[in-house]
Amino acid sequence: MSSGGVIRCKAAVAWAAGEALVIEEVELSPPQPMEIRIKVVCTSLCRSDLTAWLSQAQPQIFPRIFGHEASGIVESVGEGVTEFETGDHVLTLFTGECMSCTHCASDKSNMCQVLGLERQGLMHSDKQTRFSINGNPVYHYCAVSSFSEYTIVHSGCAVKISSIAPLDKICLLSCGVAAGLGAAWKVANISQGSTVVIFGLGTVGLSVAQGAKMRGASRVIGVDTNPEKSEGAKGFGVTEYLNPNEHDEPIQQVINRITDGGADYAFECVGDTGMVTTALQSCCSGWGLTVSLGVPKNKAEIAVHYGLLLSGRTLTGSLFGGWKPKSHLPSLVDMYLRKEIKIDEYITHNLQFEDINKAFELMIQGKCLRCVIHMPTN
Question: Which of 4, 108, 293, 377 maximizes the CB count within 10 A of its CB?
């Protein structure tokens, strides 16, 4: 099938850390072998986009097109692609699945060795960019870059989904909602009647809560410094809300006291390595499990007293909830279509592409869960 020619389209380009995105005309090359070009229909802002946009880490990768949580329609395919054809509905994947490496062949991992998380702003296959402005490169984010009318991904970084799934809702399964559900079900394997504590009640944390509730957890304690989140969290399964600013003692002491020794499971969904230690201290001895999901904003090292681990507590990480994205996401889409899982309820704002900077403002202010950005239809 033809891979088409160069496309000129609009994209929201970040020129420097923390500076407002600028809608620019960019050139997008044809898909290379084993790549597909996608017309983005809807994309949402994930906190990891915000974290990377604000980051002062070196080296800084700009100009850049952020976005990775998206749905769209295949516009053209590159040489060797047989899995997709023009018109297919797809979700983008910030971490892919090649189906053949050691990790993809194992049921113990979703960390693809070929198409795993790409951090350098380049494509997996040739370490080049596909976007440019006046011949100068514009870098990718997570090898997706969905804040653009069109984008290119490796065919292993997209999954075909049912054409009846609403693209303006289902895009949230590209990252946040799937990550939280998987952390609860696959990584922690929450047991019925257990006590769960969740640090951070954003989309990921509330997805953990939804997953915990569906697994029959008896107590789901939500911890967040934003009091506006307390009431809405109940709709996702949170049974108790704690605001650390409202207590005179460290929050881990509060949790240990009200749970008679600590929770069975703790989830860090903030992106704060200090909070990882707090979460571990909030778990019970013997079998307490802490799962870290957040992307750190600055300090990346975790400091943990060995005694916490010696006493039987476990600390583990979770990328995309442990899901093998191409293998498992279609079943989550089916669950949504059968009304078995919530997605719509996480969408607090629908914005047009030209208003994309408002999404960043709302997230910084803590006034949204997910802002879905609708791309131009023409």
Answer: 293
